[in-house]
Every structure is written in C-alpha cells, then in structure tokens.
Design a protein that fits this description.
alpha+beta; single chain; globular; about 500 residues; six-stranded mixed sheet
Length: about 500
C-alpha cells in the first residue's frame, strides 16, 4: 500500500510540492519562486505557463529528493492562490493572456459600476462577496473585453476560465489530451459568480459580467472520492496518481489547522493575512465588512461555511522593505531591526498598496506612513511594519466578533511570518489573547493533503486529523489594556489618512 499523500501548494510568489505521512508529518518538500509581472501601476500578473513549468519541476525534484515514486503516493491534493484568473484555449492549451492576480486593481471601474448600478446587493446576497477588484469575475470580464479574439473564442466554447487550481488540474490530467476542467466550491465561491446556497454558477451573476457559462469549470467537492482524474504517466509524477483534493489556500489552511468545529478560527500570514472562522452549515451574512465563503465540502456532505477577513498586504509589506526601500536584505532581518527599538516611536505604516480589503473594502485607499518626526529611524519603520500586520488582524477579529458573537480565546496561526517571534508577540499583545502555532506550520499544503487523503480513506475521518495537531509554540499577551487601547486608537487614525487618495470612477 502507498504510504504517503502529496500536495501541490501554488501560491502568490512560489510553488511548492510537499509529501506527508499518516501522522501529518512532513516527509519532503521542494519549492520554486515565479516572476511577479507588474506592467502598470496597480497591475499584477503571473505567467500561467511558468507556473505550470514550476509545478512540474517541484513535483519531479521533490519526489527525486525523497527517493519516492508515484506508486508511493495514495493521492494528490492541490491548493492555490484563489482569485487569480486564467483564460486559455482548450484546443491549443495556451493562455490568451497572463494570469491576473488577486492583488490586481485594474478592475476598479468594473467593481464601482456594479455598485453604482445597484447590482452590489445582489452579488452580496448570492455570492457573499462585495463587488471588489479582489475577486475573479471582473478579471474575466476585463480579459473578454480587452484581449483580441477572446470573446469570440469564449462564445464558440474554445476559451475557458479557471483559477490556478483548475489550470493545474487540467494540465496534470492531460491538458489538450483529455484534461479535466473542474474546480471546487472554495475556489468557485471567490469569483462573484457562484450561488452560495446551491453551489452552482448563477446565470444572473454571469450576466452582470458578460461571461458565457460554457467558459466555467464543473464544481466538484473539495474532497472527492469519485476522483477528479488521475495524473498522466507521462507527466511530472511519472505515474497515475488519483487527484482527489482541491481547496483554495486559506480554506486549505483551515483544514490543515483542523478547525472543523463551529467557532474555531485560524489566521494565515503570507503575502496577505487571511483569517477564517468556521460557522458550520450556517450561512452567516456579514454586516461588518467580512466575506461569507465556503470553508470546505467533504464528499457528498453538506458544505461548511466560514466568515473570512482578507487582508491584501502583510508579509509583502516586509518584502517591500527589502525590495523597494532596501533597509533589510532578507525578511528575517525585519525582526532584528525592529528589536532595536522598544516601540514604534509614534509612527504607523498602513500598507494599502492595493487599497484596503476587509473590513474596509476601500479601493480608493493607498499606503501611508504617518506620525514621522526627526526622532524616527528605519528600526521604527520595521517595527511599524510588523505592527501593521497585527493591527490589520485585529480589525478583522473585531468585525468577526460583531458578526458572529464569537470572542476568541486563542488564535491559531500559520504561514511564513509566524517564524518572526517579535511579530507573533506583538500579535498577542494587540489582540489580548494567546497566539498558538502548530508543529507543522505549512498548514496550507497539509490541508490539501488531508482533503486528498480523506477521499481515499487514507484517513478515515476528521477525528484522525485532529489527533495529528500538536502545538509548537504559544505567545501570551504582555501589554496592558491601556497600551492596547492607545495603540489601536492610533492605528484607526492612521487608516483614516489613507482614504480618498485615488479617484475611482
């Protein structure tokens, strides 16, 4: 019997392949970055062909380094950057245009027009989302309207759409030679095109964006015993492996953190921050700027929903210090630099590079550093950057408390920024609750593996998965309530300074 489950974790800046054993322990990994393409201000693109090539490479190298073969894997799961949109030809297999990334803001006029025309409330009611540049629907519309020949190809059934999971599944199962065109409810729920109650594409929503229904993939469960398909023996795995798990990255992290109970929450710190609260089979409609989304669907079971707070720029703000300002040479240096000072020296950094996401949803906002004086140094800016990650999380936690009544007693965390000890301590201080990190910090890939393994009974139930979760580290609050209140009040003033900066038609 095969002893392991594989997972492809295709993220915003890199692609990794990981292999896990029955205990949820990491057996192997390999990771490669891909290029960030920014042709205009506010535009962010990826090359889908490069992403597929990186996926092939990480799978092949990861297996070789672990001295494993396809036959050693019982199943393969995929997790992905969710709202990034690809349109390609089912005949040639070639993309018509670069993937438009979730951070991209070129569709702000489309989103504003939907709101202005009164369609925003219908989208909120059906899809659980506000009209925003973040989601995929507007990106598809932009490609249809701006790339020559795509509209005609879509009407003829040749041009097809997918988020990155769909693009990879199509290629892994043969591409132009019989590749499957599917997605799961977690990814479909991020398009503004899916009805949250029926888990089906909604014709009225499609009409808002002028998208032909035949472009869209079939929606299948996040963990599917029927298999989406099998990998081709001529592909990167070199053998036929069942593809049985598909989850958007933040929902995958929720599964990896085993947040299967109502009221359990996790926060993933990556390029952005994404906090999900499991609300069970109940659709909770947010009144405070959060998203209602599908958390997962296991087999033929009912979908489980979540409230989500999506924050566009957190870990990427640290990358900005490195790549644009040059005040650090690596992300790890941000901690050492920030530790040179005891506080932020009165400055706040609101990294609204792509506008503000939850709970504000203001595409007119832009980044600002406020409160500067001659006293401040690059160390204060580094500290303010870490605090910005944590204050944005508090904004979301406050909105979740108002929407759901849930008061967190602990926040489970994962993702790359959790390696920053100071940042996690600041997070506990700003929230006033303990912060807990699991032994396996790469919960996104682990969640995709769990979804795939459940489908083939490698794990019998979610109770098996709960047995695998173990705490690695816990940070306890050290600030006084007065410090916490004063600091958050300063943050809210700083956010106000970023608004109304860009004129959105």
């Amino acid at each position: 019997m095969a002893d392991f489950v594989g997972a492809v974790d295709q993220g915003t800046t890199s692609t990794r392949f990981m292999i896990f054993d029955h205990g949820g322990n990491e057996v192997a990994r390999y990771q490669l970055e891909h290029k960030q393409i920014m042709p205009n201000s506010g535009w962010v693109e990826h090359n889908p062909t490069e992403i597929w090539e990186r996926t092939r490479a990480v799978i092949e190298t990861g297996l070789r380094k672990a001295d494993l073969r396809a036959a050693d894997l019982v199943a393969l799961g995929i997790t992905n950057q969710r709202e990034t949109a690809v349109v390609w030809s089912r005949v040639t297999g070639r993309p018509y245009y670069n993937a438009i990334v979730w951070q991209d803001t070129r569709t702000d006029r489309i989103a504003s027009a939907l709101e202005r025309d009164g369609k925003g409330e219908i989208i909120r009611a059906r899809a659980g989302l506000p009209p925003a540049t973040y989601f995929s629907g507007g990106k598809i519309q932009w490609i249809l309207e701006n790339v020559d020949g795509v509209r005609e190809a879509a009407e003829a059934g040749e041009a097809i759409f997918g988020t990155i999971d769909t693009w990879l599944l199509w290629n892994l199962t043969g591409g132009v030679d019989g590749g499957v065109h599917i997605t799961d409810p977690t990814n479909a729920s991020r398009t503004m095109l899916m009805d949250l109650e029926t888990l089906g594409w909604d014709d009225e929503l499609l009409s808002f964006f002028g998208i032909p229904r035949r472009m869209l993939p079939e929606i299948r469960p996040s963990s599917d015993p029927r298999f989406y398909g099998v990998t081709r023996s001529t592909g990167p795995l070199g053998g036929e492996v069942p593809l049985t798990g598909d989850l958007g990255d933040q929902q995958a992290a929720t599964v990896g953190q085993v947040c299967f109970g109502v009221g359990e929450a996790k926060n993933t710190y990556g390029t952005g921050n994404f906090l999900l609260l499991n609300t069970g089979e109940e659709l909770v409609r947010s009144k405070h700027g959060l998203l209602t989304t599908v958390c997962y669907q296991l087999g033929e079971g009912r979908p489980v929903y979540a409230l989500e707070g999506s924050i566009a720029v957190t870990g990427s703000a640290v990358q900005w210090l490195r790549d644009r300002l040059g005040i650090i040479s690596g992300a790890a240096e941000s901690e050492a630099l920030a530790r040179q000072v005891e506080d932020n020296g009165g400055i706040y950094f609101v990294p609204a590079f792509s506008g503000l996401f939850a709970p504000y949803w203001r595409s007119d906002a832009r980044g600002a550093i406020v409160g500067l004086s001659h006293y401040n140094t690059n160390a204060h800016l580094a500290r303010a950057t870490l605090e910005a990650i944590c204050y944005q999380t508090r904004d979301v936690v406050e909105a979740m408390r108002q929407d759901s009544g849930v008061v967190l007693d602990v926040l489970r965390v994962d993702g790359g920024v959790t390696a920053n000890q100071l940042c996690m301590q600041i997070q506990a201080d700003i929230l006033g609750v303990p912060v807990s990190k699991p032994v396996v910090a790469e919960t996104t890939a682990l969640g995709a593996a769990y979804a795939a393994g459940l489908a083939v009974r490698f794990w019998e139930s979610v109770d098996d998965l709960r047995q695998n979760w173990h705490e690695d580290q816990r940070w306890h609050p050290e600030w006084s309530e007065e410090q916490r209140t004063r600091g958050y009040a300063g943050w809210k003033k700083a956010v106000e300074r970023t608004l109304d900066w860009v004129d959105v038609e």
